[in-house]
Amino acid sequence: MKKLLIIFILFIFITPFSIASDNIQKVYLDEAIKAALKNNIDLQAAEIDVNIAKNNIKTANRLQNPEFDAFYFMGAAGNSEPKQLGFSQNIEIAKRKARKNLAESNLKLAEKNLGYTTFDLKMDVREAYINLVAAKSILYTLEQQKDLQEELLQIAQTRVKAHKAPDIDAIQAEIALNQLITQVNTARVNVSAALSSFNKVINNPNNIIYDSMDKIFSEENNFEEMLTPPPNYKFPEFDTIVQKAVNNRFDIQISKQEIDIAEKNLTVITRQRIPDLQLAGGYAYMNAKYADNGNFNNGAYAGASIINIPLFYNYSPEIQNATLKLKQAELKYESVRNKAIKDVRAAYEKFLTAADNLNHYETKIVKSSEELIETSKESYEAGKSDITALIVMKQSYKSIIIGYSQALAEYYNSWTNFLREVNDENFDLPDEL
Fold it and tell me: Is 220 exposed, middle or buried (0-12, 13-18, 19+ CB in 10 A)?
């Protein structure tokens, strides 16, 4: 029974990957962004809002439909009154244009929201791609460490058999290997989770699994592929970028557009106080036997009425609420703008720190650690040091390499976060390195 359960579990976890493996498509970051923009379901739903807003403009600019009127008096009244057939038309005074302006302003808001959604999707793809590559890099590092630990175990076993080392050396080496195996298994699960998150962001309804290019973190000069400046770039001062960032931010533009909507909405509601005009006209006739002159009389009639006179209700509550909403929109704009400056500064400082940490790893930590671990390995193989020191050194080296991968991922993510805060995926940097 236990064997059957194991086989069933393996079938569940292995079969989907073998079936879907034919649909895996490896992409670079720019290709992943293009795939998301083309296929993302949420983005397609957001695009519909723009079309709805365009239709609302036509609705707001509509003319009132005419009315057909017929007056036919019955009984004795019909003997002295003419019959009438005609049309009447309500004409709004100073209202259609105001409604259309409001609808056009709402269209601009929908377009800005779509722009924000599109930009946010690009940043989400960047983050998911970076996290996936980082998870792969950590898995790759741990697998390399496992291979090295297996080699170390063989060395220890050889030295024990030659009576050049105590038995405990082989035991320690085997324990360290088993620990690495569990870490490799966990890293593989993390890669699988990162892959799922990456495809969740792309949100492609088709049966395609997107995957990142492998080990891009371990390649040289990969910053261009990751759409990120190198960490030794001379970054401009905060004061030189903050104004541009504030002007570009979608949330500030949206808040400003909401002020425009509130102003136009106040205009629409205020103009409800203006009376409308009703025009009527048509054809009238009277039969000869009812006419005083004994002739069949016919002709036209015309009339005009002033309607919707704000006599009993003058829309004061609606106007007051519209005024308050305008004030509310203005306060929201100030709040969003103030918070934006603080968010940009925080992202700016975090990115500079991440760049500094990455430079520190690359120039001072990783290279020295590689030389030290190789020296320690040769020293143990020659019998000049014990295995405990070598295992401790290898664990420290493993932590350093993983820390370097995490620092690299943090650098990429910090740049993405900076772009997210300045709302500019093509942020211009000075040419000098």
Answer: exposed
In a domain, 75, yes or no: no
Q: d(Cα 50, Cα 144) in Å, to the nearest integer?
A: 51
| Distance between CA atoms of residues 227 and 425, nearest Å | 9
Banded pLDDT at 378 (limits 50, 70, 90) = low
Task: Quote the domain boundaries for residue 333.
Answer: 2-39+113-273+313-422
Which of 227, 232, 251 is closest to 343 using CA atoms?
251
CA atoms of 321 and 304, how far apart (whole Å): 34
Identity of residue 314:
N
pLDDT tens-place string over residues 26-85: 998 889 999 999 989 889 998 999 999 999 999 999 988 999 988 777 766 666 778 889
Domain count, the chain: 1
CATH number at residue 125: 1.20.1600.10
Q: How confident is the model at residue 11 (pLDDT cuts 50, 70, 90)?
A: very low
DSSP class of 312: S
Q: What is the rounded distance in angstroms from the CA atom of residue 402 to the CA atom of residue 395?
A: 11
DSSP per-residue codes, 317-365: HHHHHHHHHHHHHHHHHHHHHHHHHHHHHHHHHHHHHHHHHHHHIIIII
Q: At 258, which helix (H) or strand (E)?
A: helix 250-270
Confidence band of 148 (pLDDT split at 50, 70, 90): confident
Buried/exposed 137-172: b ≥16 CB within 10 Å, e otherwise: bbbbbbeebbebbeebbebbbebbeeeebeeebbeb
Q: Decide if 70 is inside a domain.
A: no
137 or 184: which leads in pLDDT: 184
372, part of any domain: yes
Residue 295 lies in a domain: no
Return the percent helix, strand and coil in the chain, to nearest 5. 70, 10, 20
Residue of 241, 193, 225 lying closest to 31 (CA atoms) = 225
- pLDDT band at residue 358 using 50, 70 and 90 as cut-offs: confident
Distances (CA, A) of 379 to 147, 385, 397: 19, 6, 16
Three-state SS for 384? coil
Nearest to 244, CA basis, from 110, 418, 431, 433: 418
Instruction: Indicate whether this model's pTM tops 0.90.
Output: no
**Single-letter amino acid code for the residue at 49:** D
270 or 229: which carries more pLDDT confidence?
A: 270
Cβ atoms of 409 and 185 within 8 Å: the answer is no
